Amino acid sequence: MLTLYFLAPPLATPRAFADPGNSLWYAVLPSYWFLGLFQVLNGSSDALFAELARRAVAGGAAVTVFAGACFLLAYARRMRRAVEQSEIVPRRVGALRRLADRVARLVSPHPGEHAMLAFIGRTLARSRQHRSLIAIYAGLGLAYVFSGVAAMIYNPHSFKVVERSRAATGIPLLMLFFLIVGIRVSFSIPTEVRANWLFRMTDPFGSGAYLSAARKALFLFAVVPVLAISAPIYSALWPWWKAAAHMGFIAAIGLLLVELAFWEWNKVPFACTYLPGKANLKVMFAVYWGLLWFLSQFVILVETAALKAPASYAALMAITVAVWRLVAYRASAARADFSGLRFEEEPEPLVVRLRIFAGDSTWSP
Fold first, then answer.
1. Of 89, 185, 209, 301, which residue has the fewest beta carbons closer than 10 angstroms?
2. How far is residue 99's CA from residue 108's CA, in Å, rounded to a whole number?
3. Residue 191 domain-assigned?
4. Are residues 62 and 103 in the same domain?
5. Distance between CA atoms of 314 and 321, rounded to whole angstroms?
6. pTM score, two decimals?
7. Digit-coded pLDDT (tens) for 284-315
């Protein structure tokens, strides 16, 4: 819905209404129907506004009747299922399930990692709450991307060729950012906390299997879909070497964002208690917005310039991979200081101890 809002052409001006070439837009876009209804209710006698107002009334009535019929059918179906079906229904093992299991075994041959990947995948497949949360972030990403695309479509003379190329280059990077943030946030929302006893008993923290599987799951569910959708599109629009170089850079940025998303993360996804309000939303919003601005402005600008020369692109990839490996090393060192996985989120203490002792020349943190 946000995407359609940003993609709507800017035709709410007297000059646009007087242009006969825009009649098709007014006939198919409901937002202008209700603009006409608003003008008629304000006393306008324009014939175009009267026609749009009639469309608004007819469309509103049709949607109301259709929504009521869908509500009755859905209510009857849900009531019948609630009475006739058991609380837990076994799922059939289909071809998609078998394919997902093979991919999990290929990506994570370690038994602990494979089990965690299967747990994350099935939780996302069965939990409407988590799917809705990810869909919200994906929708925000689409709206953010298409708001810029719509501005270039309807005002082509206001943007240079370089700016249009930069916007086309940055679409998968921006969607990647929103997907990684959305899936990472969904990992913090528990499904059934009482069922985490299995992870407590089988915590292979020495090998870091569960934490490694969480990072691989984020890469599979966020980075791989973006690459799979973007690769054929850019291959059709760009030369194959340029499309391949762009996909390689997206994969490298995805690896870096995944490591940053799991910085100081020592939980099992969906298995730790959640305390609303503990996170400092003002600080986190500033961090996320700063990272989004960095991606949408600096990173896209640098990549657009680097794609023009093989040497520049090679240097950019080398720097990106080096930064990713450095962040991964520092994150691994930070995780090594943990005493174990955390399953209970503790509130902030009311009293903070400074731990300063008399006669001691050092300050204990």
1. 89
2. 14
3. yes
4. no
5. 11
6. 0.72
7. 667 777 777 777 778 888 888 888 888 998 99
